[in-house]
Automatic annotation (TrEMBL):
Comp. bias (Polar residues): 279-288
Domain of life: Eukaryota
Full protein name: Uncharacterized protein
Region (Disordered): 257-288
Compositional bias (Low complexity): 264-278
Length: 288
């Protein structure tokens, strides 16, 4: 029997969660027997993310691993009822439409909120969050981005071409939101396109790098000056981004008529772009 992913919405059920002091509505989908929490992307933008969402150049959002899922008919009806009957139309006259509006995992919204706040603070004052630390290491005259995970600074392996055979032994992969912060550094360095398409990056710890290079090699933790004036990072024109700029590759949802009184929904993934590798000169960083 096909799984009805939006059965909770068909029953008109939704719940509340508090995110950073904000009461936020979520709905539940049942996928492979698991109850997963989703929120409206439109509601997230207008209620939780709006403070810093338009601050950055929209290319920054290529860094993110947020996948959208188009809402079903039942979910559209529920969200419209929530707006008019439970939120006093705080989201205006917006009409939620099946196959057009998107849901995202609530965990991704929480991660994105942190990403925006952390990157904003980093740009404004070069301050590192206690739990999220990233930046650049100047190795002699070469600038290389890093991300800190489990108290270890990790650097992209591709920045050390020619030495990779010896360094591969200690290599690991960064994925998901860990990778998003490293990709943010790629954007700061004007490294584009193909690196954003990859959902992982092979990295090596700074400790392994230091053991590999000669003892006289110098290492300096650094960050660009006046980054708030860089148009490839900051939205200097203060333009409002199109809705959902932070979501990629939405899952298309079919919307069949009820069968024997039951709605059966199916999903199909939008084809991924072919992934290729870019050779990058990490010394061309624009870091002063």
């Amino acid at each position: 029997m096909a799984e009805v992913i939006d059965v909770e919405s068909i029953k008109g059920r939704f719940s509340w969660i508090i995110i950073e002091g904000c009461h936020f509505i979520y709905i539940t989908r049942i996928i492979n027997g698991e109850h997963l929490k989703f929120v409206s992307a439109f509601m997230a933008e207008n209620q939780l993310l709006k403070q810093h969402l338009n601050y950055f150049n929209p290319d920054i959002y290529k860094c993110l691993p947020v996948i959208g899922h188009y809402i079903t008919n039942a979910e559209a009806e529920l969200l419209n009822n929530i707006n008019t009957q439970h939120c006093e139309s705080m989201f205006g006259k917006h009409t939620f439409i099946a196959g057009k509006d998107c849901l995202v995992r609530i965990e991704d919204v929480q991660e994105l909120k942190q990403f925006l706040d952390v990157c904003y603070d980093k740009v404004q004052s070069n301050s590192n969050d206690q739990t999220v630390q990233f930046g650049f290491i100047k190795i002699d005259s070469k600038y290389v981005p890093y991300y800190t995970k489990e108290d270890q600074k990790y650097l992209p392996l591709f920045c050390f071409e020619g030495s990779t055979d010896d360094l591969l032994i200690g290599a690991v992969e960064l994925k998901n939101w860990d990778l998003a912060y490293l990709k943010f550094c790629f954007q700061v360095m004007c490294i584009y396109d193909n690196l954003y398409d990859k959902n992982y990056c092979t990295v090596i710890s700074l400790n392994d790098i230091m053991n590999y290079f000669p003892p006289e090699t110098t290492y300096e933790d650094c960050w660009p000056n006046n980054l708030s004036s860089y148009p490839h990072v900051i939205n200097l024109n203060n333009d409002h981004h199109k809705p959902g700029v932070w979501i990629k590759n939405p899952n298309q949802v079919n919307h069949p008529e009820p069968v024997n009184g039951k709605y059966v929904q199916s999903t199909s993934q939008v084809p991924q772009q072919q992934q290729t590798t870019t050779n990058c000169d990490c010394s061309s960083s624009g870091i002063k």
